[in-house]
Design a protein that fits this description.
115 residues; alpha+beta; elongated; two-stranded antiparallel sheet
Length: 115
């Protein structure tokens, strides 16, 4: 969805995938899925910086729920408020993900952001 709205990043992703397929497969025959299954794990992990940036930015935009945590140790003091042992805390991720002090123009799909 985001790539269809951003031709530049769609082209970068396509080029990256095509380069890896050319590097690790010997044939132009077969489906894209079969070519991708031929890629070694280290290629997925170490040779896809464009896809990594796209995935990170997509997660930032779409992950807007709450992070939940149960305080399992002693009482915790946060900003003058006490979170008692056994209590649950919730943090709305959108507060962080759409903070324009952290992410300028936070609603824009921009995989070029640096964490």
């Amino acid at each position: 969805m985001f790539l269809n709205g951003n031709a530049q990043w769609k082209a970068k992703a396509k080029t990256e995938v095509q380069s890896l397929i050319a590097k690790y497969t010997n044939s132009s025959q077969g489906s894209l899925a079969s070519h991708l299954s031929d890629l070694p794990p280290n290629a997925w992990e170490e040779e896809m910086p464009v896809m990594e940036a796209i995935i990170r930015e997509t997660i930032r935009i779409l992950l807007t729920g709450a992070a939940l945590r149960r305080n399992i140790k002693e009482d915790l003091n946060i900003d003058g408020k006490v979170v008692e042992r056994g209590a649950f805390m919730a943090y709305p991720l959108s507060t962080l993900h759409f903070d324009d002090l952290i992410y300028p123009d936070p609603f824009k799909f921009d995989p070029d952001r640096r964490d």
